Amino acid sequence: MKKNSKEIISGIIVALLITLMTAVFYLTYYLSNKVEIKLTWIWLPIIYITTSCTLLLISLNYKNKKLQLCVDIYLTPLFLVIAIAGILLPMITLLFQYSLYLMISFVIPGLILKILSYFQILILPNELKIYIIFTSAVFIAVLFNGKLRKFVQWLSSLYTKNYSFAKNAKLNALTDYVASQNIIKFLIYSIYVILLIVMNIHKLQGRSLYNNTNYDVAILQSFVTFLAFDKVHALSAQLDFKFSNLLSLLIYSIKSLMNFNIEEKNKQEESKK
Questions:
Q1: What is the pLDDT of residue 175?
Q2: First to last CA, the chain
Q3: Which of 57, 141, 251, 262 is deepest in the core (most CB within 10 A)?
Q4: Taking 50 as the threshold, does the pLDDT of residue 1 lie above it?
Q5: Mean pLDDT of the 135-144 span
Q6: What is the mean pLDDT of the chain?
Q7: pLDDT in tens, 117-127
Q8: Exposed (0-12), middle (13-18) or buried (19+): which is 9, by Cβ within 10 Å?
Q9: Residue 12's pLDDT band (boundaries 50, 70, 90)?
Q10: What are the backbone dihedrals phi and psi of residue 115, each rounded to the nearest 5 degrees, phi first?
Q11: What Cα–Cα distance (Å) separates residue 230 from each residue in 82, 95, 162, 179?
């Protein structure tokens, strides 16, 4: 008796789901004909998801291998979408963090110049502004790599902190690996190379990438400055130099010189006696 009542309840649930699926189909179809813009791209996914849930519940209530096979085949596109989303999630997160990283680097000098210009403290031509913004941005991106990386991770965590997948995927560790200082330098070089190729193609055709040819010159000079900066930065990392050590040596030299002068003065006074 219990088995029969369970089958009756399952049949009622399935019938209700099929009725709901049919209602959703006709409702979305009706709306798609009513509005001017066809809603095919909306109601087709709705119908697919509704039928998928219905078939999944039917297969759970009625254990049948053939039925299960049919359901698995029907749900294959949904499983593929979920799998692709799982693969793309880290890539999308990295792309977002890269974009945010570079955006912050460019926004800082741009905002400072905007404020100075607004209060008429510093009025500069647009060509010089472009040079300063590009040059300052790449300097910031390289010199403050660690701080910027942590700040970007913190901003990302505001969105993903409530989701366990972010912790399981170790997105912060992935960001630390792919957003290291050397990779950021490589990314900056790649951006400059692309810009130079595009500008040279326009220049050889007697055109400019911008309406003002001086803008191209500003970007070119920014790249030259970055080349010199990168060389100095690389050499500074090889130098066995610390300012604290220099300061200690200077203090020691000054003290030694003062002590020497005092000793010499004492010797002269003793010799006079």
A1: 72
A2: 129
A3: 141
A4: no
A5: 93
A6: 75
A7: 888 888 889 89
A8: exposed
A9: low
A10: -65, -45
A11: 43, 24, 40, 17
More confident residue, 270 or 163: 270
Q: In the structure encoding, which two tokens stand for residue 114, read together?
A: 């905007």
Distance CA 113, CA 121 (A): 9
* Nearest by Cα to 191 from 97, 98, 92: 98
Using the structure block, give the residue that is written with the tokens 């060509």. 127
Calculate the alpha carbon distances from 192 to 22, 94, 148, 171, 186 in Å: 57, 21, 21, 28, 10
* C-beta pairs of 73-78 under 8 Å, 24+ apart in sequence: 77/48, 78/48, 78/49, 78/52
- Of 145, 141, 151, 142, the C-alpha closest to 172 is 151
Which amino acid is residue 101, in one-letter code? Y
Residue 76, by phi and psi: left (phi above 0), alpha (psi -120 to 50) or beta?
alpha
Q: Give CA 240 to chain center in angstroms.
A: 34
